[in-house]
Amino acid sequence: MHRFYVTKIDPSDRSITLDGAIARQLRSVLRAEPGEHIRLFDESGYEWEVEIDYVGHSEVETTLISAVKPVVEPKTKVTMMLGLARPERIELAIQKCTELGVVRFVPVTSERVQGGNTGTPSAKRLERWQRIAIEAAEQSGRTVVPDVENPKMLMEAVIDIVSEQPLLCMWEETATQSQPLSRTLRTLPEVQNELAVLIGPPGGFSASEVEAITESGASLVTLGERVLRSETAAITVMSAILYERGDLGG
After folding, report:
1. Is the dihedral of CA 62, 63, 65, 67 positive or negative?
2. pLDDT, position 72
3. What pLDDT does 192 receive?
4. How much is the average pLDDT of 212-228?
5. What pLDDT sits at residue 115?
6. Smaller CB count within 10 Å for the chain: N or C?
7. Is 250 a member of any domain?
8. Angle, to 10 degrees, between the axis of helix 230-244 and the axis of helix 87-100?
9. Domain check: are 193 and 81 in the same one?
């Protein structure tokens, strides 16, 4: 059954009108007809099944049928901090990590940003990234859509996050103070329900950046001897967190 994210639903009003991109998709792409059922979810984290009553040129009229039990979110709320890279690489990381359960994305500007100053995303690009997160949440059954925030400078982002929760910095080079990801995750308290992950840009972090990151209180973590692309590292780390915290079906 097709799912769509809407800003807000008032369940006391059983008549729900859909317009904009959702109405266009239902009419022109899915060729929806009266009598078909779809599901809607909003910022509240609830989900509803509705029946289509009328498909117009710019609006689709529906009637609320019932509430639906939403997919359970991972126990650990993960913030993914992504070193800026080519847009398609960031987009893949946002899409797949949203499917896996990330609750927040923070693009980060560092010394080795791919594309230099031109690598900073425009407002239009950020809107596209947020739309990718919405579509990934719709596809994966989630009722939570992660925020894609405005880019921050590396140390500004690090200092902000370490005051709130543990931060794991992925470091592709061997360092005496780094620990394997699995060991780091297993040492977290069972009650720790928030965690941030920092993924470097394709060129990695500089030695001075890593020093500043660790001095701020972040943990330096290794993914082994293989050097992964930044988007692969993001997906790998999120999958490992789900596994170690018991959120992959057992």
Report:
1. positive
2. 85
3. 85
4. 89
5. 56
6. C
7. no
8. 10
9. yes
